[in-house]
Q: What sequence folds into this?
C-alpha cells in the first residue's frame, strides 16, 4: 500500500506571498492532520480534517488554512508568508481518530 | 506550543548497547506513539500503544504505555548504527486526532 505523499517536497517563497501544499493520504484513511516542525518549537499541530470537515485546530493564526476533498486528499494554504513560517510541514493520515498516524516525507518551505 | 517532556535529550552510545528513553505528561492520554525521524524526512511510526499497561515489541524495540496514562518508555536493545536518528513520543488525547509530541531524543551510535 502506498504511503502518504506530499507535494512539493521543497519550496522557496518570499515574504508576503502565499503557498499551497498538497497531501494524499494512505488509501482508505479518512483523517488527515497537518503539523509544522521547526528547530525551536518542535512538532506543532495545525489542524485535522475528516470527511471534508475540520475537526480540530491548533493555535496558529488565521493565515494558515486547509481543506479536504471528497477523495480525502488535503491541501494546506498559508497566506501573507512571514520569515517565521519557514519550516518542515508534515501531513499525517489515519483510518479514524485515536489510531496511529502515518506521516508523509514533508514539504520544506523556506521564506526569504 | 504544547510539548511532552522527553528524556534524555540526547544519547551517545556504543554499538551493541541497550537504550532507554521516556516521555512524561501532566495530562492523560489514551494513545501513545513512538516515531523515529531521519534528517529531512517525516517521522516513521515504530510502535503504537492503546491501553494502559500495554507492553509492545517491534523487533529490538519495546515500548510500554504507563499505568497512569501519563507516561511511556521506549527501549532499544543491542543498538546498531542504523538506529541513529531522532526519536519522538506522541500522546493522543481522547476524542481527537491531535497528537502532542515530545521534544525528541537524539541518538548517536558509535561503532
A:
Amino acid at each position: 500500500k502506498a504511503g502518504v505523499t506530499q507535494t512539493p517536497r521543497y519550496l522557496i517563497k518570499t515574504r508576503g506571498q502565499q503557498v499551497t501544499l498538497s497531501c494524499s493520504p494512505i488509501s482508505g484513511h479518512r483523517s488527515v492532520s497537518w503539523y509544522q516542525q521547526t528547530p525551536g518549537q518542535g512538532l506543532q499541530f495545525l489542524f485535522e480534517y475528516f470527511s471534508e470537515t475540520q475537526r480540530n485546530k491548533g493555535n496558529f493564526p488565521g493565515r494558515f488554512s486547509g481543506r479536504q476533498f471528497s477523495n480525502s486528499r488535503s491541501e494546506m494554504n498559508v497566506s501573507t508568508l512571514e520569515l517565521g513560517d519557514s519550516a518542515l510541514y508534515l501531513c499525517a493520515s489515519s483510518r479514524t481518530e485515536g489510531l496511529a498516524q502515518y506521516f508523509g516525507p514533508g514539504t520544506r518551505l523556506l521564506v526569504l | 506550543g504544547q510539548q511532552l517532556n522527553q528524556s534524555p535529550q540526547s544519547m551517545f552510545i556504543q554499538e551493541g548497547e541497550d537504550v532507554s528513553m521516556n516521555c512524561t505528561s501532566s495530562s492523560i492520554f489514551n494513545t501513545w506513539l513512538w516515531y523515529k525521524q531521519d534528517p529531512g524526512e517525516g517521522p516513521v511510526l515504530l510502535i503504537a500503544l492503546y491501553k494502559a499497561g500495554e507492553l509492545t515489541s517491534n523487533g529490538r524495540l519495546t515500548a510500554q504505555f504507563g499505568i497512569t496514562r501519563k507516561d511511556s518508555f521506549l527501549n532499544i536493545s543491542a543498538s546498531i548504527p542504523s538506529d541513529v536518528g531522532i526519536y519522538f513520543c506522541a500522546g493522543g488525547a481522547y476524542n481527537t486526532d491531535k497528537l502532542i509530541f515530545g521534544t525528541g531524543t537524539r541518538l548517536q551510535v558509535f561503532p
